[in-house]
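Title: Prediction job returns without error message
Component: structure pipeline
Severity: low
Priority: P3
Assignee: unassigned

Description:
Job completed but the reporter wants confirmation the result is attached to the right record. Sequence as submitted:
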Amino acid sequence: MRLPTVELPSLPGLLAAPAPGWVENTDVIVVGSGVAGLTAALQLREAGLHVTVVTKVNIDDGSTRWAQGGIAAVLDPLDTPQAHARDTEIAGVGLCDPQAVRVLVEEGPARVRELTRLGAEFDRHPDGSWMLTREGGHRADRIVHAGGDATGAEVQRALHAAVRRDPWIRLVEHALVLDLLRAPGDGPGGLGPACGITLHVLGEGSEDGVGAILARAVVLATGGMGQVFAATTNPAVSTGDGIALAMRAGAAVTDLEFVQFHPTALIAPPDPAAGGVRRAQQPLVSEALRGEGAHLVDADGKRFMLGRHELAELAPRDVVAKGIHRVLLESGSDHVHLDARHLGGEFLARRFPTIVASCRAIGVDPAVDLIPVAPAAHYASGGVRTDLLGRTSIPGLYACGEVACTGVHGANRLASNSLLEGLVFARRIADEVARGLPEQAQPAATGAWAGGAGRVVSPEIREPLQRAMTRGAGVLRSAGSLAGTAGVLMELGRRPGSAATASWEATNLLTVASALVAAAYARQETRGCHWREDFPAAEDRWRGHLVTSIAPGDRLCQGWEEPGDRLCQGREEPGDRLCQRWEELR
C-alpha cells in the first residue's frame, strides 16, 4: 500500500544536552511512577533485581491518580473472560490483537487481586463481595472501584506505599528523561541494545543537572501525550516524553492516530486570573456517572444520544464524543450538559465525591444544576510498539502502560481497560526480564553519551502547537485540516531553543504531534476514535497498522503492518513483517 504523505518538520534524533556529569548504575531502570511503572518496579524487586524508578515530578503526579471509573476485570462468577474480550474487540473496531486481548482478560483478575494483597481497598458490599458497576461499551458489571470515583488515587496510594517500604528501589523524583543510551552493535548507526538513559534532575532532586543511569534493561512507563492538545484530562507532565525518546532511539511506534477524547470533561468557565483562558487539564466527569443513570442533554434539555447507538449514553467513548461534537457544531456552543439531578444529592455525594467537589469548585451543584461537559483529549491507544512480553523493536527496551501499544486497544480503548493493561503487561515485563538479563554494557561513545550533538525547539511553540492540534487533528479531521496543522508544525519546528527543560518538553511535543499528524493524514478512513470527515466510513483495506519511526538522518518514516504481523525484537521471522515497506515522509 502506498501511503498518503504530508510535509512535516525534520525531527531530531537526539536532544541537545550536555554530556552526563554524573553516572549511576542499577539492574533495571523504570521511567514513570504510575500503575504500570510501580507495578513493574515491585515485580522486578520480587525477582531480586535492583531497580531505579525515575519520575518527572513527584511519584504521585502522573495520570494514574486521576482515574475515576475503575478497573475492568472479570470478578463476577456470572461474567466471563470471553465476554470481556468481545466487548474490548468491539470497541477496538477490528484493530485489537486477539492474543493481547486474551492475555489482558485472562490474567487481569489475578493482577487485581494482587493489588488487594498490596493493600488497595476497593469498594465492597457488606458481605465482602466486589461492588461492581458498568461503564461505556461493557455489557456486564465488571468495573471494580475504590472510594466511589477515586480508584486511581487508591491504586496509586497502595503502590506508592509498597515502593516506599522497599529500600532496594531507588526513587529519583523531579527528573526528566532525555535520551536512550545504546551499546555498540550491528543495528542502524552501529548501535545495539539499550544500556541506560540520560536525564536531567531538577532543582529539588538530590543530584543536579544532566546525568546518566546505566542499566541492563530499561522499562518505559511514562504515560500519555495529552498535552499535545489544548484541552486534555491529562496532567501537565504528559508531554509524550517516552514516545519521543523511543522514536529518537529508532524504536517503532504505532496507532498514534487513535487518540481517545473523553466525551465528558468538566468545562469550567474561563479563568480571569489566567488571562481569560481555561486550564489545559480539565477534570473528568467519569462515565460511571452515566452508568448510574445520568443523561446527556442539549441546550433544550433533549437527550441526543437516544437513537444514535443501542447503548445511548453508554456507547463506546468515540461514539459519545462524536455525538457531542455534532451537537456542538450545530449549536455553536462549547459544551453540552450532563443531567444527574434525578439521582439525588445524597447518592451523588456518596458515590461520586470527586466529581461533586470538582463541580462545586466551578459553582455547579450536580444535585440541582446541569453539569457542563465537552470532549477533551484523554487517552492514547497507540504508542511504542511492543510484543506480548513488553519488548520493543530495540533489544533491552521495554514499554508498558499508556506509552506502549500492546495491541489491546485497537482503534479505541474500552473504558477502564487502561489500569488493567498497566498491571498485566508490567507483570509480564518483570517476568521476562527476570528470566535473564545481559551483563551491563558500556554506551557507544557517541550521541547522548558524548553530548552536544542534538537539537531542540523553542518552548514558545507549546501553546500554538496545542491550539493547532486541537483545531486540525482533534475530534474532527480531514485532509485539509491535517495539512494545515502540518504547515503550522513545519513553521514551529524552525524555531530553535536551548538545552533546558521547557525546550526538551516542547521538542517532545513536536515529535509526537508530527508522528500523530502523519498517521492521521495517511489513514483515509473513519475508525474508532480517528474520525475523518472526508472519509466517513471504515474500509477493510485500512484494517492494519501504521508504524512510524525516525530513521537515520532525522527522517520521519512510515510503514504499513498487516493484521497478525508480530513484533519480535526487530527480527524478521515468519509473519513478522514489521516496517518492511518504509516511505520517507517528504
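Comment from assignee: result matches the submitted record. Residues 23-256+379-447 form a domain with the FAD/NAD(P)-binding domain fold (CATH 3.50.50.60).
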